[in-house]
Amino acid sequence: MLIFQLIVLLGIAYLIYLSQKKKLKGDRKMSILFFTILGIGLIYGSAYLLQIEIPSFANGLTRLVKAIQGIQT
Fold first, then answer.
1. Are 45 and 9 in contact (CB under 8 A)?
2. Mean pLDDT value of segment 13-18
3. Where are the alpha helices (DSSP H) in the chain?
4. Residue 8 to residues 42, 62, 68: CA-CA distances in angstroms?
5. Contacts by 12-18 with C-beta closer than 8 Å and gap 24+?
6. How confident is the model at residue 57 (pLDDT cuts 50, 70, 90)?
7. How far apart are CA 67 and CA 73, in angstroms?
8. CA-based nearest residue to 6, from 51, 50, 61, 57
9. CB neighbour list of residue 9: distance below 8 Å, 6 or more residues apart
10. Among the listed residues 47, 37, 49, the one whose alpha carbon sits nearest the alpha carbon of residue 13
11. Which band of pLDDT confidence, cut at 50, 70 and 90, is reported for residue 25?
């Protein structure tokens, strides 16, 4: 079951890449940002599936999302 979940996670990341590939060709900064966010999501999703506890990473992502949304922490 774990292998299936990892394959699904990788498949979704690949589909996101394919859907945005043409849009990102001209803009280098957006391309770097896109792949950074996609990579963080892939690493975090893999850690979640493997049940690896990464509290500082998770707290950092939570703070980042709250900062983007304008919620005070």
1. yes
2. 82
3. 2-24, 28-49, 55-69
4. 11, 24, 28
5. 13/38, 13/41, 13/42
6. low
7. 8
8. 50
9. 42, 45, 46, 49
10. 37
11. confident
Q: Which amino acid is at 11?
A: G
Query: ∠ at Cα 22 (19, 23), nearest 5°?
Result: 90
Is 70 exceeded by the pLDDT of residue 5? yes
Is pLDDT of 64 > 70? yes
Which two three-digit tokens encode residue 41? 């999501």
Token pair listed for 31: 């391309």
Look up residue 18 and give its amino acid: L
pLDDT at 72: 65
